[in-house]
Write a structure and sequence with these properties.
alpha/beta
């Protein structure tokens, strides 16, 4: 019997680190350090090192990270926050949740990311933040966005849920980790992420100690010290067992990214001659850590290709079929200052193939042959 093909093979990944994980979870249970235990401090320290010294505030999930970051900036109801229309809902959901106004902008059709030009064109006197989303594994042009932020005084909150570990290269040759350039960066440790927990988790990143202190306070009921509440906060914590798992996986993250890159290169080479597909572009300014491998399927054939793959036992996903401005939740609260042709096109064309750390050999060959058999 053929091995089943999975969009994300967390079982195979776990098999490689099983003993490490079981020992770490056993230690956590033996000491009953379930909340704010030493595992959280260890993971926080190691992640900070990985991010070249950025401060790390672990929280319960990536959506909380975004919400707390916006709260820490002191935004008020009615303030505008610019965000791409082509993204997962959480990027804009937190804007609406806080009574702010999501301002939706288009994205580049090749990288799927918004640009500084898209953001600049949408700025008004009410703009108080913008959220570049580093989609599918590669970062936006943070050098241009950082320059725009300095020019306008508008802070950046990076949504780095899909691109943790991607580095951005500036024109002067310097290298910056995605998620550490803006006032805040936010990421998710949802199990399918490149660095995934065995449940929910997330973190906030910043290089500003004052903002770090505010975010840390908000995440802990607004406390400056126990039972002294200086501001309205939330209860958002990364638990010790998830931190223990993440600490182990962080040691392997570079290898995980290398495995994803090898799979992406195999896809690229296999599909280069297919005129009905456009493979994901690599931005000159950013690494690509391939959270997703997302094709554009031309000539209205996406659904037919997806059905063809399904018949062969090959899963695929559409990220994302409906742009934010067409979602019922946002129709009455968002602003769309311009046309969004690229977003509309991508929602019609994108299709993501299986992408994970265990993708090689026969499994990878079956996926490639399945896609090619549709076109050739």
């Amino acid at each position: 019997m053929e091995q089943p093909i999975r969009m994300v093979d967390l079982i195979g990944q776990y098999d490689r680190i099983r003993e490490e994980v079981q020992q770490a979870l056993h230690d956590c249970m033996e000491t009953a350090t379930f909340i704010q235990g030493p595992q959280v401090q260890s993971f926080t320290h190691h992640l900070s090192q990985f991010l070249d010294g950025a401060e790390v505030i672990p929280v319960a999930n990536g959506t909380d990270a975004l919400q707390i970051a916006l709260m820490a900036l002191g935004l008020q109801p009615g303030d505008e926050v610019i965000v791409p229309a082509f993204t997962y809902v959480a990027s804009a959901e937190v804007i609406g949740l806080l009574g702010l106004t999501p301002v939706l902008v288009d994205v580049d059709p090749d990288t799927f990311n918004c640009t500084a030009a898209h953001i600049e064109a949408a700025i008004t006197p009410r703009t108080k933040a913008f959220i570049p989303v580093h989609l599918f594994g590669q970062a936006c042009d943070l050098e241009a966005m950082e320059a725009l932020s300095r020019q306008t005084g508008i802070p950046i909150v990076e949504d780095n849920a899909q691109s943790l570990g991607a580095a951005v290269r500036y024109q002067d040759g310097s290298r910056h980790m995605a998620g550490t350039v803006g006032s805040f960066g936010c990421t998710s440790f949802f199990p399918s992420k490149n660095l995934g927990a065995f449940g929910d988790g997330g973190t906030i990143m910043t290089r500003n100690p004052e903002l770090a202190a505010v975010a840390r306070m908000i995440a802990n009921h607004g406390q400056s010290r126990r039972y002294y509440h200086d501001r309205i906060g939330v209860n958002s914590r990364l638990d010790s067992m998830q931190a223990a798992v993440l600490d182990i996986k962080l040691r392997h993250l570079s290898d995980y990214h290398a495995a994803r890159l090898r799979a992406a290169q195999a896809y690229d080479e296999a599909f280069a001659d297919l005129s009905g597909l456009i493979c994901p572009a690599r931005a000159a300014h950013s690494d690509h850590v391939f959270h997703q491998y997302t094709l554009r399927v031309l000539d209205g054939r996406r659904e037919a290709l997806q059905q063809h793959l399904q018949q062969l036992g090959i899963p695929s996903m559409i990220y994302y079929p409906v742009p934010l401005q067409e979602q019922l939740a946002f129709k009455d609260i968002c602003q769309v200052p311009g046309e969004l042709p690229n977003t509309a096109m991508l929602c019609r064309e994108v299709l993501s193939l299986p992408m994970h750390t265990e993708l090689s050999g026969d499994i990878l060959g079956r996926i490639i042959e399945g896609v090619r058999s549709f076109f050739v």
